[in-house]
Amino acid sequence: MKTYELKYGCNPLQKPAEIRSSIGELPFEILNGNPGYINFLDALNSWQLVKELKAALNMPAATSFKHVSPAGAALGLPLTEELKKAYMLEDLELSPLASAYARARGADRMSSFGDWAAMSDIVDKSTAMVLKKEVSDGVIAPDYTDEALEILKQKKSGKYNIIKIDPSYEAGDAEKRSVFGIEFIQKRNNCIPSYEHLSNIVTENKELPEQAKKDLILAMITLKYTQSNSVCFVSEGQVIGCGAGQQSRIHCTRLAGEKADIWYLKQHPVVLNMKFKPGVRRPDKDNAKDLFVRHDTTDYEFNMLKDLLEEVPQRLSEKEKAEWLKGMKNVALGSDAFFPFRDNIDRAFKSGVKYIAQPGGSVREDIVIEACNEYGIIMCMTGLRLFHH
Fold first, then answer.
1. Domain that residue 291 falls in
2. Whether 159 and 289 share a structural domain
3. Is residue 149 a part of any domain in this protein?
4. How far apart are CA 143 and CA 62, in angstroms?
5. Which of 143, 164, 294, 383 has minimal CB crowding within 10 Å?
6. What is the 8-class DSSP label of residue 305?
7. What is the predicted pLDDT for the residue at 215?
C-alpha cells in the first residue's frame, strides 16, 4: 500500500485527504479502526520519539501525544506505591512497558485525555489493560500479543485505532512539506540526543549522576518532537511537565514548571486519600484532583467537588503547598534552544530543577551560568538545537 485515503484532513471541510509513501510501501498496518489525519501525525511523531528513546537508553519507552506534541513520555521503570495510587492503577500488575505508559500518561493526565499512545516494544496484556482504563484515540507499536490485541479491539465500541509499525523502517534523509503552494525541503533531523551531548558541563558543579543523564536524554528526545518553543521537566525517568508552543522561552518554563508542580501536588497525602462517590469516572477524578491543587481554582469551582467526593478535604493553603513542593528535588530540565535571560533559571529552581541541558549560544550566557552557580545547578551546553515545527 502506497497511499491511504482519509475521511478528511485537519478539519471536516478539508477533503479529499490522503497520506502517501515517498519511498516504497507505507511502513504500517492498520489492525483496527480508521485513523484520521491528526491521528497519523501523532502516530508517526510519537513512534519516532519512543523508537529513539529505546535506541538511546535501551529501555522500554512510551509516550502520550495530543495535537502533535507529547503530553508525557517515560521509561519503563517501576512505579512507587504513591504513583500507582495517583494514577489509579493499584489493581494492576505492571510490566516495564505498562509502567512506561502509566508514567507517560501520568505526567499530565488532563492533557492526555483522548491521547494517541506510542510504545517502543510489543504491547503485552499488562499494557493493554492500562490502555483499556483510559480515554484514548489510538496506539502505535511494533506489534501486539494476541491477548493484548483482543483487549484493545474492544475499546470505543470496537473502533479504537490500532497501528502496527515496521520497526525496521527508516525515512529518507530529505523531508518535504507544502505551505500555501510553496514546497519546503530540508535534511531530516536524524540526530539522536545521547550521552555525548552532555559532556560540556559549564557550571562550577559538575557532578552529573547516571539517572540525571538518562533524564536529560529523555528531556531532549521529548523536545525533539514537541512543538517549539519548548521546555521539558523530567524526574526519575518520566516527563513531569512539558511547556510547548510558546513564543517566549520564559512562558515555556513557567508552563512546564506549573505542570510539574501540579504533578507533585497530586501526590500529597490529602489528594491520595480522597474518597470519591460511587460511579465517578476516571476523567472526573482527574479533573477533581486538578481543581483541588491548582493555585487559580475559584471558590465556585472548589464547591463543585461536593458532587464528586464523599467528603471534601480542607483546602490546602499556599503555605502548605509551598512546603510540600520543597520535596520535589533533582529534577532535570531540557530546553530546545538557549535561555536568553536568567529568569528561566530562577523559575526552574522553584520546581526542584538540579540539572539542565540546553544548546547554548546566548549573548547573556555568563549571566545564565552565574544563576546556575548561585543555585548549585549543573548545566550542560549540548550544542544541539531541537526546534520542531
1. 275-315
2. no
3. yes
4. 14
5. 383
6. G
7. 98
User: In the annotation, is 295 catalytic?
Assistant: no
Low-confidence ranges of the chain (pLDDT < 50): none
Q: Scan for cell 508552543, then name that residue.
A: 245
306 flagged as catalytic: no
Q: How many domains does the chain have?
A: 3
Residue 182 lies in a domain: no
* Catalytic residue (one of 187, 275, 326, 389): 389
Assess whether 229 carries a catalytic annotation: yes
222 plus 113 within the same structural domain: no
C-alpha to C-alpha distance for 124 and 360, rounded to whole angstroms: 41
Structural contact between residues 79 and 135, judged by C-beta atoms closer than 8 angstroms:
no
Mapping DSSP to helix (H, G, I), strand (E, B) and coil, where does residue 386 land?
coil
Catalytic residue among 67, 133, 321, 388: 67
Burial of 90 (0-12, 13-18, 19+ CB in 10 A): exposed
* Distance of alpha carbon 383 from alpha carbon 376, whole angstroms: 22
- pLDDT on residue 23: 81
* Neighbouring C-beta atoms of residue 241, cutoff 10 Å: 26
- Cis check for the bond before 27: say yes or no (omega within 30 of 0): no
Region for residue 231 given its phi and psi (left: phi exceeds 0; alpha: psi -120 to 50; beta: otherwise): beta
The x, y and z cell numbers of residue 27, run together, are 511502513
Catalytic option among 51, 54, 66, 213: 66
Find residue 183's DSSP bridge partners. Answer: 178
Q: In 10 A of CB 316, how many CB atoms?
A: 17
Catalytic residue among 45, 229, 287, 344: 229
- 70, 63 in Cβ contact below 8 A? yes
Q: Is residue 185 part of a domain?
A: no
Q: Is 388 designated active site?
A: no
Residue 179's pLDDT is what? 92
In sequence order, the 6+-apart residues with CB closer than 8 A to the CB of 248 are 229
Evaluate whether 291 touches 305 at the Cβ level (below 8 Å).
Answer: yes
Instruction: Report the pLDDT value the prediction gives residue 365, as an integer from 0 to 100.
Output: 93
The per-residue pLDDT for range 206-242, each reduced to its tens digit, is 999 999 999 999 999 999 999 999 999 999 999 999 9
CATH number for the domain spanning 39: value is 3.40.140.20
